[in-house]
């Protein structure tokens, strides 16, 4: 089977990592409850930043976010390793800027993710992911962003949403813990 994964906030906990980093950089403590109550992907409003300031802040710390020690969600590496061992094809489809493609692949490999270079796509807008996903004829696709999953017509493709505070309105199968999915997929594949 062919499995497609978004990376940020699907396989790795990037937003919360950014939230912690912003607190250190800006010297401001913000309660984690406020983070968990956000109903949009962007986090800058918690720090009193405008959209423009937030975007500048995000871009100024991008390398630190992407290539240091952002936590991987528990069970994600193990699940993808297992799928890879069993002969399934794993694709990564990320809207990270194209110039971050090579370093992102390297970082993912260091975390233990099975990465085949020819099955890695990056640098597209959220709305363009749909074309790549359709062309790849995936069996499963996982993402956290409503703007992405809303564009996918389901057909044979099984779309699942990684649970986040900003996507609770999305009515799709929902992944809270990767370890749970392992069981669900194994059952379906048998
Ligand atoms: Mg994402």
From TrEMBL:
Belongs to the 5'(3')-deoxyribonucleotidase family. The keyword Methyltransferase does not apply. Its EC number is 3.1.3.-. One of its GO terms (molecular function) is 5'-nucleotidase activity. It holds the Pfam family NT5C. PANTHER family: NUCLEOTIDASE YQFW-RELATED (PTHR35134:SF2). The active site is at 6 (nucleophile), 8 (proton donor). It comes from Planococcus glaciei. Keywords: Hydrolase. GO terms for biological process: deoxyribonucleotide catabolic process. InterPro entries: 5'(3')-deoxyribonucleotidase, 5_3-deoxyribonucleotidase-like, HAD-like_sf, HAD_sf, Nucleotidase_putative. This is Nucleotidase.
